[in-house]
Each structure stands twice: as structure tokens, then as C-alpha cells.
Amino acid sequence: MIVIVDSGGANLVSITSAFARLGADVLVSGLKQDIERASHVILPGVGSAQNIMHRLRELNLVDVLKSLTQPVLGICVGMQILFEFSEEGSTECLGILTGSIKKLPRAPDLTLPHMGWNTLQTMGASPLMKNILPDAYVYFVHSFAATISPNTIAQTHYGTPFSAAVQQRNFMGVQFHPERSGEIGCQILKNFCNLTVESTLTV
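^ that's the sequence the OP posted. Answer follows.
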């Protein structure tokens, strides 16, 4: 059973539908026992890091999420809160990954938020990125991002390079929206469904 954490994001329905199309059993829940029993956990996020962290604290899920050993995937702001801190609202996050989330730099020819299709460049050999070719297009909507780090498994460029996907053992995150990214997004969600605890131990 895949559990999507009920973090209050507006993309819960679209993420649930994307997994249902893959034939996966999906449950949206904010209950500790459901999340701990899940085979895979999705941490969605549309909105601000500050609001999502407030919601997770209200549900007493911060320590629960940090202790999970099954595959966990953060999407958009759900990825950002895996880090220690976000400049968005000066927010203390989960601290699972080292580093901070920073606002994308402004440039005369670029608008914020970064919204629309952009390409991925995979880095390393994470099973989450299996069968994803160079320059595959995925869909982004965000103004804040993680810098490139040892945990980066895919990067994108928008004014500056940033982490489009990250992984530290069983904790993964994608800055883009796989549920809105067509066949490429579907492949990434399929890859996530196929992950086991053992397959994440070396990344």
C-alpha cells in the first residue's frame, strides 16, 4: 500500500490518480499507523514550506517521517522540506537531507515562479531515474530550489543549476511534478513503486 501523507497540498487528487493509473493501491492519510505500515510513502506539497511543516507538526508526524525506513518520495515542496531549512518563510524543515532551500535568482529574461517544461540531466545511477534519457522534459512550478549537492541525482537549469531530484538512501525527492509530466513522470512513479528497502540502501 502506498500512503500519500495528507499534508494539505492541493495536488493530492492528481497524485492519487497518477498512482491509480499504474494499478497501485493508494491511501491518503495523516495517521501515524497508516504511514508506518505503508510499503511506500509520498510526501506531496503545493503551497509553502511553512504551511506544510505547520500541518505536519499539527499531525505529530515530524518524528514519524524522519524514522521511516521504506521508500519515501517528496514531490515539489514535499522535496524541499526534506532539507534542514527553507528561505520561504524562514522555515525549519525535517532535516533529513543536509542543506537549505533558497529562492531562485531573478534574471531580466526569466520570470518567477519557474513554471513549465524543462529538461533533466541525470547524475549517478539512482533506480528512481531508471530509463530516463538525457534532456527528458518534466513539468515545474516553483520559486525556491535546492542547490546541487552530493545527494543530487538529477539537475535542471533555470538561471542557475539546481537539484531537480535528490536521494539519500530511502528518502527521495523531485522538484518537478511527475503527476503532470506525461510519460516521463509516469516512468519515474513506476520506478518508485518498484523500489524496495534493499534497493535504496546504497544510494
